[in-house]
Amino acid sequence: MLYSIRTLEIEKEEVKQLNTKLKFANIKLQEYALTIEEVATSRERTRVAQELHDSLGHSLMALAMHLEFAKKICTTKPQKVEEVLAQSEKIAKSSINDLRKAVTVLNSEVEVINFNEAIKKLIDNFYLFSNIQITFTKNEEIEALSPIIKTSLYKTIQESITNSLKHGNATEINIKTKKINQDLELTVTDNGIGCNNIVKSNGLNGIENRITALGGSTYYFSHNGLGFGLKISIPI
Fold first, then answer.
1. By three-state DSSP, how is residue 229 classified?
2. Residue of 92, 95, 206 whose CA lies nearest to 160
3. What angle do the packed helices 147-166 and 2-73 form, to 10 degrees?
């Protein structure tokens, strides 16, 4: 009987210890769940911030350039001002549309379906500037690629144009794509001021993150007075 009582006491103590451990494990599980939620929220915020930076950053920069241009020619070329303001209105409306798209990125990222047409619209934002030449040759092979690859290429070109005009003061931008064996290569170069020390901004980091996620690689090259260049390679 004494043995049975002792056994029951030991078992009760073991159950008590197990309950304590279980309670501690539940607390840890709750903390882990909260951490996961915080990480997911942080990633979503980063994704939305990147979308805003990519789309609105480019459009607003183009809009600012048009308005500055209109201000300079308002007295010398009043007829031209009307055309510039009309294009500015078009860009502003496009920016509003981009903002709506950025909001929907909370649910899903907007994908580029017709790549060549999307790039043409991107370049057309600057058709009024005679001192800016952006060269892009259509590559119909790209249209057969998956939307995620085309979207990544589009965002890379978008960010490159923005950086070339905003930071590099470039007047010429060349965009080339070609297929080499099982890889697709995109090269974007400009004749801007260049730099000896490349400091990666949110935009450049965003490019790298997208290309790396596709199993690709990113390479930047630049030098003072010799412009800036970007080359990416994606397996297809």
1. strand
2. 206
3. 50
> For 161-166, what is the mean pLDDT?
87
Lowest mean pLDDT among 57-66, 146-155, 227-236: 57-66
Residue 52 structure tokens = 């805003």
160 close to 218: Cβ distance less than 8 angstroms? no
Work out the average pLDDT over 46-63: 75
Ordered structural domains, the chain, with CATH? 129-236 (3.30.565.10)
- Sheet-wide strand order for 217-222: 133-136, 172-180, 183-190, 228-235, 217-222
- Among 195, 109, 199, 193, smallest CA distance to 154 is for 109
- What are 128's two structure tokens? 């009024």
What is the pTM (predicted TM-score) of this model? 0.61
- CA-CA distances (angstroms) from residue 114 to 83, 201, 211? 28, 28, 19
The secondary structure of residue 140, as a DSSP letter, is G
- CA 184 from chain centre, in angstroms, equals 19
Neighbouring-strand partners of residue 88: none
Q: Distance between CA 4 and CA 1 in Å, rounded?
A: 5
Identity of the residue numbered 107: N
